[in-house]
Design brief:
The structure is a single chain. By secondary structure, the chain is α/β, with parallel strands linked by helices. It contains 15 helices and 23 strands.
Length: 535
């Protein structure tokens, strides 16, 4: 999620809005919603100038302005016909004119059209300054309570009006959220969905969800792992918190923020995420997303895919409600921009990267793709070539953030090893990591590595756990798989200057974690460009 162009209400417009709200009819009781709702993230912020292939992998068909009544009516019909119970409207609070009006109008038009579709609000405190404080959010929630919750088609779950939250650490720690909940909803009359997998936040939120699961290449694997962890939490704490499954068609924000991409595989990835929701008997489904084009997770009809993903959503949502298997669907991708799933990599296969004018081939290419790609390794910054490593010659290739080494004497997956660039860069800087201050243990919620005498806590811990090398074929990443990717910590968090700016960093054998508070979540933790620094 990212900042969008916004305009504040002028005093005159604010007065007009208040008068209009005062004239609304008295709300009628909310209709019953499905016990297992399907809820899709919805973005009303689009303007005609946003639509460009320079920043997007696909564009809507037709292109539009987000606030137009005709557009909102079309989206309401499409979502409802596809089996979606509710749209989760992104909102920057009562003082930001554009999204405030559009979310309100979405609710009005859905109700006026006689559709079953409901609407919920997600105040985006990560992107809008007026919402980045407890007091600001308390005021915004008071407006939701007075103006939104009473609408007959505002989403309710377990009898309570729903509020979604994106990436809680962008506001603060657990204590900050406890202060907000106690201040804004002391009697727990609302139902809060929190976008995190940190189970300590269940002290504040009623349920947790994932916004993005496409860092996991195997469809549904992230959700299967999460479901197991949640079941353990419920058992150990005498709770019955619902399992909220995330489904996604794919993802691609490479042009927008050089993030990552997950190929849609002609609908197969989407089907796989739904299958996990069905098999795990999810109590609710979050769909990311209806129309997020900067991140390429849309199911809205588009120039590349036509209405394929609306048709798939209808089939899959019906199957979810029936508790059956995901149907076998043979979709036909429209010919405008054909989908091209990545084929298996052969030794002769190569991918050229125009950003740096180097190519990656064969086993190194498959390893790069399978274990994190651009966010983890960066672009290639040199050719594959013979490199002397500990007195022996190996084929290796340098990337922005690491070095991949071919070790054909080892069986897979150990035939490709990562360079210990964290340790090597420290040595080059004349710094002995063994002289860094050590700790004797870790506080609650952190990990302690006795091998090096260092701990690992937030904000780096979640990033560490979210990635790893796939060795055991099990869902998610074990501690060993994360260590295999990043190595052991070589330092505690410390402040360092990188390109003239002060950042909190932590060194690992194969990486340097950097905290970038100026970025939008989830890109505040970045890996240092150690490959570049070794040149």
């Amino acid at each position: 999620m990212s900042m969008r162009h916004v305009r504040r209400l002028t005093p005159i417009l604010a007065l007009i809005a208040l008068v209009a709200l005062a004239s609304l009819p008295s709300p009628t009781p909310a209709r019953a919603v499905s016990d297992r709702p399907i809820m899709a993230f919805y973005y009303p912020w689009w303007e005609p100038t946003d639509w460009t292939y320079d920043r997007m992998s696909d564009l809507p068909s037709p292109r539009y302005t987000g606030g137009d009544d005709a557009v909102l009516r079309r989206h309401i019909q499409q979502a409802d016909d596809a089996g979606i119970d509710a749209l989760i409207c992104t909102w920057y609070g009562p003082d930001e004119d554009r999204l405030n009006k559009r979310c309100r109008r979405l609710i009005e038009l859905a109700r006026e059209g006689g559709r079953d579709l409901q609407v919920a609000i997600i105040p985006d405190q990560s992107a809008w300054g007026a919402l980045k404080s407890v007091d600001g959010l308390t005021r915004a929630l008071n407006v939701l309570k007075s103006d939104f919750f009473g609408q007959s088609n505002y989403l309710r779950y377990q009898g309570k009006p729903v509020v979604f939250w994106f990436y809680p650490p962008s506001l603060g720690d657990l204590g900050t959220w406890q202060t907000l909940r106690n201040q804004a909803d002391p009697n727990r009359e609302q139902y809060w969905f929190g976008g995190t997998d940190n189970f300590s936040f269940l002290d504040v939120f009623d349920a947790l969800y994932y916004f993005d699961i496409t860092w996991e290449s195997r469809p549904g694997a992230a959700m299967a792992s999460y479901a197991q962890r949640l079941a353990t939490y419920n058992k150990n704490n005498g709770q019955s918190r619902p399992f909220v499954a995330t489904v996604m068609p794919g993802y691609d924000d490479l042009k927008f923020r050089s993030g990552h991409a997950r190929d849609r595989q002609d609908g197969a990835y989407y089907q796989g995420t739904w299958q996990t929701a069905i098999e795990r008997n999810a109590q609710a489904v979050v769909l990311t997303s209806f129309n997020e084009f900067f991140e390429g997770s849309h199911i809205e009809p588009s120039e590349r895919y036509g209405d394929l993903y609306l048709r798939l959503t209808k089939e899959l949502s019906d199957s979810f409600r029936a508790g059956g298997q995901v149907p076998v669907i043979q979709p036909t991708t429209p010919p405008t921009v054909p989908s091209t799933p990545l084929p298996p990599i052969n030794d002769s296969d190569c991918q050229f990267f125009p950003e740096t004018n180097y190519q990656v081939c064969g086993r190194l290419l498959s390893y790069w793709r399978e274990n994190g790609g651009l966010p983890v390794f960066g672009y290639p910054i040199g050719p594959q070539q013979a490199v002397n490593i500990e007195g022996r010659s190996y084929q290796a290739q340098a990337f922005e953030r690491n070095r991949l080494e071919l070790h054909p004497e080892n069986g897979r997956p150990y035939d490709v090893l990562l360079g210990r660039l964290g340790a090597e860069v420290l040595t080059r800087q004349g710094r002995d990591w063994q002289q860094f201050g050590k700790v004797g243990g870790a506080v609650g919620g952190c990990l302690f590595f006795a091998e090096t005498g260092h701990s690992l806590c937030e904000p780096f811990l979640s990033y560490f756990r979210s990635k790893g090398l796939e060795f055991d074929g099990q869902f998610g990443y074990s501690l060993g798989e994360s260590v295999a990717l990043f190595g052991l910590p070589l330092s505690e968090p410390q402040t360092e200057f990188i390109q003239g700016n002060a950042y909190t960093t932590q060194w690992f054998e194969r990486a340097r974690f950097e905290w970038h508070p100026e970025n939008q979540d989830p890109y505040r933790v970045l890996l240092g460009l150690l490959g570049v620094e070794m040149r």
